[in-house]
Design brief:
alpha/beta, Spore Coat Polysaccharide Biosynthesis Protein SpsA, Chain A, 12 helices, globular, disordered N terminus, binds magnesium ion
Length: 417
């Protein structure tokens, strides 16, 4: 176990479950586009930008979202109400309405009573490829009030420069030569509640708060050199229409659970009966790092048969997620089917299009996520798994023992060559 604790979040801290998103900007640089629509709700590839952003954040175990809104907050509220259904997952999306022109620091100040002990914060008009578990781990280092995702650029352009020495941010936001290379703020942060004591009722996080925290040595930085896009100006908003959908379209690794991630011992529904397959956690991490979506699709007729309860199942998956975090890994989404045509009790006794070999769970995941179906693979240990994949048009492999990471590593290598 010692080895497993070397990365990811230290196990003595509860995982960050809250994301706060700054949605209050007027978007005046976008002209008529934002005359009646808040910038985060502008459509990108047919969906509000904010929907794509929240879907992405939800991959890292965040279940509660707090949207800080001002301009046309009625639209943000209507969006928030619809979102859990659109994404098909158990998330809570709340809206806090900030006073006019409070600024980003002011918006947080006015929502201070609603912030968790540790939370992620996002600009609502940019998208950065960042491993939130790595960012969360940076916040855990001593003396840190915040951890910032930083993007290297060839030319600073309209952005202020951030200086990083080792893990420590030593200067934030100074204006630099627009043509010079450097690190810029990626608009993705992890903060502890200690930030609240530094917030003014009106003001800017970037201009009035972060420079002082950097001077005090209270900020850590994580360099993220992957995808970055800020929709704040018209030419970048236009670019987003093709680049954002291309960025989110990825292969998926669909994993059956029992017999693939954990030893098959019949109706595993509680933590005491769960035992990892060798190399399973490492396999998930490999796929995460390669940019694949990782989904669990699992028949759970044990639930419908009354062998264990929904809360047992949820506890077990919290345990699975916590174990995965110790190797810096995460499951992006999960579908399960509690029904069984004969064995189910009461409402659980029925045919269901989600129960493998039916393809419903895979199809629902592909409704929500922009999966590159042709490049995707399902791993299962039974013919019903392979049949479900075939019906969903996804290639499959049977797992028949050994180390799962060896199998996955081979698949990932084949696909990237
Ligand atoms: Mg199985």
């Amino acid at each position: 176990m010692a080895l497993l604790k070397s990365s990811g979040t230290p196990s003595d801290l509860a995982p960050i479950r809250q994301a706060v998103i700054l949605c209050g900007g007027l978007g005046s640089r976008l002209g008529s586009l934002t005359k009646d629509t808040p910038k985060p709700l502008l459509p990108v590839d047919g969906a509000p930008f904010l929907q794509l952003q929240i879907r992405d954040i939800s991959r890292y175990g965040v279940t509660r979202f707090l949207l800080l809104a001002a301009f046309r907050s009625d639209q943000i509220e209507a969006f928030a109400a619809d979102l859990p259904g659109l994404l098909g997952r158990d998330i809570k999306v709340d809206v806090a309405i900030e006073p006019d022109r409070a600024g980003t620091a002011g918006a947080l100040y006015h929502a201070r009573d609603r912030l968790d002990d540790r939370f992620f914060l996002f600009n609502g008009d940019s998208l950065l490829q960042a491993d939130l578990l790595d960012l969360e781990a940076k916040l855990a280092s001593s003396g840190a009030v915040g951890a910032l995702a930083l993007r290297p650029v060839d030319a600073l352009g309209r952005y202020g420069v951030v200086r990083l020495e080792g893990e420590q941010v030593t200067a934030f936001g100074a204006s630099g030569d627009p043509k010079a290379p450097g690190l810029i703020n990626g608009g993705v942060y992890a903060f502890s509640r200690a930030l609240v004591d530094r917030l003014p009722p009106t003001g800017s996080l970037e201009a009035d708060v972060l420079p002082h925290l950097a001077d005090e040595g209270a900020l850590r930085g994580l360099v993220c050199d992957g995808f970055f896009l800020d929709i704040g100006v018209p030419e970048d908003f236009a670019r987003a229409q093709t680049e954002v959908p291309a960025y989110f379209r990825r292969p998926a690794l669909f994993l059956d659970r029992d017999g693939v991630l954990n030893e098959e011992s019949g109706y595993v529904g509680t933590v005491d009966r769960f035992q990892w397959i060798e190399g399973a956690r490492e396999a998930v991490k490999l796929a995460n790092d390669r940019g694949w979506y990782v989904f669990i699709v699992t028949n759970q007729s044990g639930l419908g048969r009354g062998l264990y309860s929904l809360s047992d199942f949820q506890d077990l998956h919290a345990h699975i997620d916590a174990d995965l975090r110790r190797v810096g890994a995460h499951i992006d989404d999960l579908r399960f089917c509690p029904h069984h045509p004969e064995g189910g009790v009461g409402v659980f006794q029925r045919d269901c299009g989600w129960r493998k070999p039916e393809p419903g769970m895979l199809l629902d995941l592909m409704r929500v996520w922009p999966v590159d179906r042709e490049a995707s693979v399902l791993i299962g240990d039974k013919s019903s798994d392979l049949e479900a994949a075939e019906r969903a048009g996804v290639e499959s492999r049977r797992f028949s023992g050994g180390r799962l990471d060896a199998v996955i590593s081979q698949i990932l290598d084949e696909r990237s060559s």
